[in-house]
Specification:
Length: 206
């Protein structure tokens, strides 16, 4: 019996050491480990990716043309009564704080309501939020593809065909052109906290 316990204990210790080694090796391979505050199932490489959408000038663009520097990407819609305006305003404030430190970041808004959010509507929305904001929309299929890439959720509510609301996830994503999505931010993150986080990632990347 004692021998059995010893074998089990030995196996548990080996497993624990292997887990510690794996975690250490993973952090060593992750150059952003010191900056990262969130955990993403499957790693940050599982979120983000190629997309093709339409910008506020009506031009078809790809992710490579949009994410040319540090970018804070948000999925929302212009008819959103409260959450989207607050989140995108917070993101724009973080971008201004970053600019004060010499970091030029871009706020990006991807509409999950392409039926109402035409390029013209996105242009007005972006203009009122930040001079560098990029507003993106597209066909229903293009928006769905971008949402799947970023693993976001949205669902149109039943009801009025003109004044309907859309349920959606509310994460903001930090994307770097060389690395893709490296971090995500929840709604309770302040603009100052977000700017500090982005600064860590940008300085580490450089």
């Amino acid at each position: 019996m004692a021998k059995t316990y010893a074998i089990v204990a030995g196996t548990a210790i080996v497993a624990l050491l292997a887990g510690l080694w794996f975690a250490t090796a993973r952090n060593a391979a992750d150059i952003f480990a010191a900056c990262r505050a969130s955990q993403i199932a499957g790693g940050t490489g599982s979120i983000g990716g190629p997309f093709t959408l339409v910008n506020q000038q009506g031009q078809t663009v790809t992710d490579k043309e949009v994410i040319t520097g540090p970018s804070i990407v948000y999925f929302g819609y212009t008819f959103c009564p409260d959450i989207c305006p607050a989140d995108t305003a917070r993101n724009a404030e973080a971008v201004d704080l970053l600019e004060q430190q010499g970091i030029m970041a871009t706020p990006v808004m991807i509409s999950i309501d392409p039926e109402r959010d035409t390029p013209e509507v996105m242009a007005d929305f972006a203009f009122n939020l930040h001079e560098r904001m990029i507003g993106l929309t597209g066909t229903v299929e293009q928006v769905k593809a971008a949402s799947r890439a970023y693993k976001t959720y949205y669902q149109k509510q039943e009801g009025d065909e003109e004044y309907y609301l859309v349920n959606h996830s509310t994460f903001s994503y930090l994307a770097l052109p060389e690395y893709g999505v490296v971090e995500y931010y929840t709604r309770d993150m302040t603009a100052t906290e977000m700017a500090e986080s982005v600064t860590c990632f940008v300085e580490t990347a450089s």
